[in-house]
Recover the amino acids of this structure.
């Protein structure tokens, strides 16, 4: 099956894609065929000793520490069955309860396929049986662990949400549907777990449960017209369209494909189909799974529109919205294209985003097997995925902060259960799924990742062992351990980061056909044949979208400056910068440990050790650096001194100030709040207030005109709130993100009626459905006499 495009649409898409920097669009469309290549099944690949196998084993230990009955608590309770164990805490104690079970079921199934571990399969089978028992309590296929909170604070079964949807009652926020935290997203995780148990554990009942649940949802959606569906889809729904497309793929029933197509969120998808990048300010991981679903629809139908959307989205994100480690998003949101250098913060790169981008990459690669897809895949796997799991504890990071001096915060075993804990369980259960790929047309075996492993290809009878010292070294060796009689082509990926390479067969240089980023060798293989690929591992500087902001790379690895132990506060010292008239890298000296360098003379403050970023789990580090010449460095120092002096003057002139987000200052000012949380962004602490909540505090005051100064992040958007002083309205503030990529101070005259007395009580309360702030600073200043 190939794409069937009209010439007019093809030319329009090509022009728009080229304008957005995706110059390869025509070639990729012409070469695309759904599932032209397929990965060698996970069950046919076994990992050999390496950091990947160690990570897999650490993850398996954590999976076995978790108790399935605790994750099943809500499912049994709301099915009318007695729970067998108490529920876990964190997100599993909120209305999103049940999302972890889906991730956990997927992780068990993947781990079973990757390792053959029978305990993983037994646990997966047990969970499926329990879900089937819960589902049997109803006649309509409903089974869920999520709940919803009523206006009076009562927690009830999530079924009430869908009873209301049938009646046309749809109350949505970006992450809330009729009072529940993204229930369709939670169901997507459950569908994915069931489908993985079916695929990797051969559990037929898992598909039965998924089909019955699909029937329940399909009946609900049947009551909604198109406008109502689109309103519902404005709440995060994960990749539920992928789940229904996959049900069609497994069963052949057309109804599931129709439902998948109804789950197309047009507000987001239509611009992508038209090759427009309108991702700015969209929640990143809300969107990526939708595109995975679109990709799967193309594979099942050959429809060019979902393929165009998925392909353009991938290129837009990887080329214009991606950090050097392969991750994306700041505070979970996309920013404007090519502004990465302006958003190097303490809240970059949510793990779920990278997990899902790698899934999308696998789909696109299946249509057009080009090595560039795996250049991105390798970068993200090594520098983000491997950084996300703590090797000692097996715990997972939510964000991967890239701002200088930041540290990684890892989950606790039983009291967090963030989304990134769930995707982390899956990411570290399946490293063998993308090493080897088979071309269905000519039988070529592609080797895309140099992860030490054994492969037993059931299709061709070819068996291989892959040994590699990448990413620290530059050599990979592929040995044939069993060979079929027929000749075969083996294609080794030539990484885009390697300016040269050397390939030998049994110790002698071999001629290879080079195409699409692969060195291809076609021959009748013999047992013992060994292909050896040698790659240079030189240091290089990689610019961001701002040429003056760079990172240090060695081969596929991002190197980071080691700024000290994570438990040691970073303080207020200046961020390191690279300063030199000429070649910065001339100041880097190789150390005894592989991929470790000591930088002297070119880094300020210095000297500093540079080491692989992914391995700095317990360190504070710096990844991005300003690249300055000496005059620019002196000018920067002068600006920093002037900014510090201005801040000191403001604090000295204030009648009073509260450091929001600082416990001591908040307590001293009698802070009271509901649905309000301390935040930190770009090393500045602050506080917000969520819908239905408030924050209030007391400032020391005096008679006369007063000005209340509040500090916000200039590009904060979708915030609406009221400010009061001693009960008197001060302002109705709306933050729309139009005040620049910087912190901004806004002055509010205090009404004269509020200035009597020696205390000013400030209250900030959001409009219903919105948040207030965050406020990153508050000062009470003398006003100007009228």
């Amino acid at each position: 099956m190939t794409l069937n495009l009209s010439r007019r649409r093809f030319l329009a898409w090509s022009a728009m894609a080229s304008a957005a920097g995706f110059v390869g669009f025509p070639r990729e469309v012409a070469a695309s065929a759904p599932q032209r290549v397929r990965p060698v099944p996970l069950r046919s690949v076994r990992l050999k000793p390496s950091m990947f196998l160690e990570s897999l084993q650490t993850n398996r230990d954590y999976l076995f520490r978790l108790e399935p009955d605790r994750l099943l608590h809500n499912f049994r309770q709301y099915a009318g069955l007695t729970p067998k164990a108490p529920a876990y805490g964190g997100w599993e104690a909120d209305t999103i309860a049940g999302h972890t079970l889906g991730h956990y079921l997927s992780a068990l199934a993947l781990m079973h396929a990757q390792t053959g571990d029978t305990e993983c399969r037994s646990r997966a089978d047990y969970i499926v049986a329990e879900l089937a028992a819960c589902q049997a309590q109803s006649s309509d296929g409903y089974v869920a662990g999520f709940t919803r909170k009523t206006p009076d604070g009562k927690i009830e079964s999530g079924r009430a949400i869908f009873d209301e949807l049938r009646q046309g009652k749809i109350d949505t926020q970006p992450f809330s549907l009729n009072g529940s935290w993204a229930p369709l997203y939670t169901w997507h995780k459950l569908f994915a777990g069931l489908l993985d148990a079916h695929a990797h554990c051969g559990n037929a009942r898992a598909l039965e449960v998924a089909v019955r649940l699909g029937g329940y949802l399909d009946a609900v959606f049947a009551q909604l017209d198109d406008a109502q569906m689109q309103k519902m889809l404005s709440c995060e729904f994960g990749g539920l369209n992928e789940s229904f497309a996959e049900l069609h793929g497994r069963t052949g029933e057309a109804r599931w494909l129709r439902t998948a197509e109804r789950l197309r969120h047009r507000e987001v998808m239509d611009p992508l189909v038209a090759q427009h990048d309108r991702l700015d300010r969209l929640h990143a991981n809300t969107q990526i799974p939708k595109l995975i679903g679109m990709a799967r629809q193309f594979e099942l139908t050959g429809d060019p529109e979902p393929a165009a959307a998925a392909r353009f989205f991938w290129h837009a994100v990887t080329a214009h919205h991606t950090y050097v480690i392969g991750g994306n998003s700041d505070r979970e949101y996309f920013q404007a294209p090519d502004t990465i250098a302006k958003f190097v913060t303490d809240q970059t790169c949510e793990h779920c985003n990278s997990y899902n981008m790698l899934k999308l990459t696998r789909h696109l690669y299946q249509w057009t097997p080009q090595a560039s897809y795996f250049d991105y895949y390798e970068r993200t796997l090594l520098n983000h995925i491997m950084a996300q799991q703590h090797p000692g504890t097996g715990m997972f990071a939510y964000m991967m902060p890239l701002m200088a001096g930041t540290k990684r915060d890892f989950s606790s075993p039983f009291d967090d259960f963030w989304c990134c804990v769930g995707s982390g369980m899956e990411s570290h259960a399946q490293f063998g799924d993308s090493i080897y790929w088979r071309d269905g047309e000519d039988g070529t075996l592609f080797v895309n990742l140099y992860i030490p492993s054994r492969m037993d290809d059931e299709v061709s009878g070819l068996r291989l062992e892959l040994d590699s010292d990448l990413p620290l070294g530059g050599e990979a060796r592929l040995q044939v351990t069993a060979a079929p009689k027929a000749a075969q082509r083996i294609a080794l990926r030539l990484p885009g980061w390697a300016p040269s390479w050397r390939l030998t067969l049994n110790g002698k240089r071999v001629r290879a056909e080079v195409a699409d980023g692969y060195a291809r060798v076609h021959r009748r293989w013999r047992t013992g044949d060994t292909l050896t690929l040698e790659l240079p591992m030189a240091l290089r500087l990689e610019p961001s979208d701002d040429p003056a902001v760079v990172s240090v790379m060695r081969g596929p690895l991002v190197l980071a400056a080691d700024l000290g132990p994570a438990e040691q506060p970073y303080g207020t010292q200046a961020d390191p910068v690279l300063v030199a008239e000429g070649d910065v890298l001339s100041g880097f000296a190789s150390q005894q440990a592989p991929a470790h360098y000591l930088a002297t003379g070119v880094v300020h403050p210095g000297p500093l050790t540079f080491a692989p970023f992914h391995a700095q789990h317990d360190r504070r580090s710096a990844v991005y650096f300003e690249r300055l010449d000496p005059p620019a460095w002196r000018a920067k120092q002068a600006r920093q001194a002037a900014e510090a002096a201005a801040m000191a003057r403001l604090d000295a002139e204030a009648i009073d100030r509260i450091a929001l987000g600082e416990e001591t200052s908040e307590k001293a000012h009698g802070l009271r709040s509901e649905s309000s949380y301390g935040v930190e962004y770009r090393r500045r602490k602050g506080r917000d207030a969520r819908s239905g909540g408030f924050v209030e505090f007391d400032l020391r005051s005096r008679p006369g005109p007063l000005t209340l100064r509040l500090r916000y992040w200039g590009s904060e958007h979708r915030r609406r709130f009221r400010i009061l002083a001693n009960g008197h309205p001060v302002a109705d503030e709306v933050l729309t993100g139009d005040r620049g990529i910087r912190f901004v101070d806004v002055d509010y005259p205090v009404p004269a009626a509020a200035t009597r007395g020696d205390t000013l009580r400030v209250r900030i309360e959001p409009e219903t459905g919105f948040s207030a702030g965050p406020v990153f600073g508050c000062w009470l200043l003398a006003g100007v006499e009228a």
